[in-house]
Amino acid sequence: MECYTAAERLPKHEDAMTPNDIARVQDYLRRTFANDRIAIDVPTKRGAPVEVRIGDEFIGVLHRDDEDGDISWSLMITILDEDLPPASPVTPKRR
Fold first, then answer.
1. How far is it, in rounded angstroms, from Cα 31 to Cα 27?
2. How many angstroms separate the CA atoms of 84 and 95, rounded?
3. Which of 25, 47, 66, 79 is the most buried (most CB within 10 A)?
4. Distance between CA atoms of 95 and 77, rounded to whole angstroms?
5. What is the distance between the alpha carbons of residues 95 and 88, in angstroms, rounded to a whole number?
6. Where are the domains of the chain?
């Protein structure tokens, strides 16, 4: 099994996230959502997605965008149909 440092495990391309980027975004998400269980995993393979979890539950992937020098991050949250309850206990409000 190969061992990499955190910096070596990140994909090497223009929009790659550094370990500092990951720590900063993780801190932001934890503070914003008041949840210390949010964790961002450093990819184990080059080019692999940066995964976001709450506890052991995978919730989505994080992307870094560096367009014209304006850096931003986007979190794509994935919800599988099989994870949803059969019916919602909440009725939508009518306008």
1. 6
2. 25
3. 25
4. 27
5. 19
6. 6-78
